[in-house]
Amino acid sequence: MQRIIFDYAVFLLLIGLSFAVFIYSKITGPKEQTKANYVFASKGSVSMGAMLLSITRGFLGVKVFLGYPSEFYYRGSGMWETLYGMSLAFPLVLYFFIPVYFNLGITSVYQYLDMRFKSRLVRRLASATFFIRSIQNLGVTVFTPCVALKTVMGLPYWFSIILITSIAIVFTVLGGLRSAILADAVQSLVMIGCSILIIIHGFFIAKGPLNVFEVTKERDRLDFFNFNMDPTLRVSTVSATVGQLFMTLSMFGCQQNIVQRYFSMESQKQVEKALWLTIPLTIFLFSLSWIVGMVIFTVYADCDPRALGYISEIDEIIPFYIEDRFYFLPGFMGLVLASLFNSGLSIVSNLNSISTVAWEDFVSQIPIFKGASEKNQLWCIKSISVITGFIVMGVAFIVAQSSGVIDASQLMTSATSGPLLGVFVLAMFFPSTNWKGAAAGMISSHLMTLFIVLGSLSIAKEPNYLPVSTEGCTNTTFSPHIEPIFDIQYNQYKMSFMNKTHDDISSVLSTPEVESSSTDDILTMLYSITYMYYSFLGTFVTVFVGVIVSYMTAIRTRDDIQYHQLGYEQIL
């Protein structure tokens, strides 16, 4: 009981620290909040380190701590290879996207599309795509810590979702981008510390890193360099690299909440330095979560808690492990839960970006809002943030009906990356394209992706988790304070478990792996394509349709050519 009280005390203390960071930022920031310092952090007001942590955290999200370890435990290392695509994307963003934005002096990535195509329609299509993708991903971000809060504290999903979203809305209204960046940095440091402690302690239990490597290799968890070209495989080296490359380009090159951080830095040189430093930081943070998964799997290699019924969802393995193995360290569970809870609050910076885009590209164009003073504009942006927060809350409730945060997050990001990246590729690299082609390309890409996603729901899917074992289970496998589920010896349960097929003990994820189809049905094959390729397919369709439609509708004038080369000349 004393340990539980200590955990709750630490949990509340860390949440209080998050409030303190926002209050500190408010006190030390500009005395009067304006639209400019609410939307952007004042140049030079945020350190390079804080900016790097915020950018990386905004990219990887809370899934880096909770989702990837469980992914490794039950699915293996396939998704780890998305790191290749991430690393390849950063230099491309650095040399092709950043120069365009800085040389044109724009503050919104979608403003560039307006300048390039001279079309509000294209700009609004891109803004709407960003809005939809952000709302979906924020729903996953809010829901993810709720899994841990339910597993350990017994808090129902609805309570955690409402609590996290409500606090995030308050933070968004009170603070600005600077506050959100500083909070992201503090929360990232706490999560890094927790991960390192879990790894060090796990190495001790698992008899060293060499044994961790051997066990995970023997149990087929380490599966790198799988160059199977079958597009229906959930993940392979090829799909992980290609898919994540296009997703990362879309996020770091075309997404407003990331670009906002670029413009909060003092110069383009500083942005370039930050992006180069982001590569090793991303590799470190990303790999850290997978090593956590390796350690936990080694500890439970011969006695899987999920197979025994201690947990019901794969994403619950991290909180269960901490509850089981860190009972000797009072307050650590509270620290982890607070870190996860605060990770849900990382939506603050995203709500800021979404509300800004919604105001600039949609609401401000309504006649009644035209000519609004800067003060009224600021209040409108904050009001939009509140409304958006409640929408995110609703999406989180929908996400709660599924399981597997990695699948949910990757599916949503990949499905919306193609149209957004494709229209920027058209704008920068195809000077002859016009607004009609750009709009037709984006709409066609969205319809195709939606068609595939909806069609995939009609296909019978079999979950394909890697095998787990209960052969080493005893009455002393778990720590004393973990109440045994069975009053009899585990041997009787093991016999019944061993007679079950692997599919019988697996629960269905939102988008489980699908075995390759042998049918010649083209639609079935199309529906079976892994979501990792959605970003690539969406980009290709946007560019292909955009070029064809532009060619068919081209009316070339000198003025058109001048505007169509915006961005292309900046890159050259």
Helix percentage range: 55-70%
Helical stretch count? 25
What Rg do the Cα atoms give? 24 Å
Q: What structural class do helix, strand and pairing data support?
A: mainly alpha
Order of helical and strand elements: HHHHHHHHHHHHHHHHHHHHHHHHH
Shape: globular
Low-confidence stretches: 487-520
Largest sheet: none
For the residues shown, what is the average pLDDT?
A: 79
Pfam family, one: SSF
Family: Belongs to the sodium:solute symporter (SSF) (TC 2.A.21) family.
GO cellular component, one term: plasma membrane
Keywords: Cell membrane, Ion transport, Membrane, Sodium, Sodium transport, Transmembrane, Transmembrane helix, Transport
Descriptors:
69% helix; globular; 25 helices; 0% strand; single chain; mainly alpha; 572 residues; transmembrane; symporter activity
Give the topology:
Layout: H1 2-28, H2 35-39, H3 48-60, H4 63-75, H5 82-104, H6 109-117, H7 120-153, H8 157-174, H9 177-205, H10 209-218, H11 237-254, H12 256-262, H13 268-299, H14 305-308, H15 317-325, H16 332-344, H17 347-361, H18 374-399, H19 405-429, H20 435-456, H21 490-498, H22 522-527, H23 534-552, H24 558-564, H25 568-571
Helix pairs in contact: 1-9, 1-16, 3-9, 3-13, 4-13, 5-11, 5-13, 6-7, 7-8, 7-16, 7-17, 7-18, 7-19, 7-20, 8-17, 8-18, 9-13, 9-16, 10-13, 11-19, 11-23, 17-18, 19-20, 19-23, 20-23
Can you give a write-up of this model?
By secondary structure, the chain is mostly helical. The chain is 69% helix and 0% strand. Helix 7 packs antiparallel against helix 17 (347-361). The termini are far apart.
